[in-house]
Amino acid sequence: MNKTLIVYYSLFQNTKNLALEIAKQTGGDVRELIPEKSYSFDYNTAAKEVRNQIARGFCPKLITGNEAIDDYQTIFIGTPNWFKTLAPPVMSFIKLHDFTGKRIIPFCTHGGGGFCQIENDIARECSNSIILPGIAVNGAAAPEEITKWLETIGF
Predict the structure, then answer these.
(1) How many other β-carbons are positioned within 10 Å of the β-carbon of residue 65?
(2) Which residues form the Flavodoxin-like domain (predicted)?
């Protein structure tokens, strides 16, 4: 079975929009990660909360998105670039599951920082999986950009 799952966390909808476009083009199932405690919608307050969580290695409890992944062989993992790494809810998801033998494809949205450490952090946490080249999108991506990337990785 080679089912595909697109998992993402999005605070300001950029990563969500990218995840939905990937799902549309791949036919994969979509799973949004929602932490038990929401982040502030005020950017400065949210940034302070997130910076503190990342510094402490905190992984928030998820109220959605933590369902089993056993039926999926390919998993796209999406996150905003927060202070050069994954959003804490995405790290929660990664730490909850065994990705042994699965194909992992990272994607992120950013405001100019690209992937930074995101791909390395995913590779470290999912060391028994196959990591394919991801895509880092500044803001929003055109559907053609996603199509080209998916073709490049043989999807």
Answers:
(1) 18
(2) 3-153
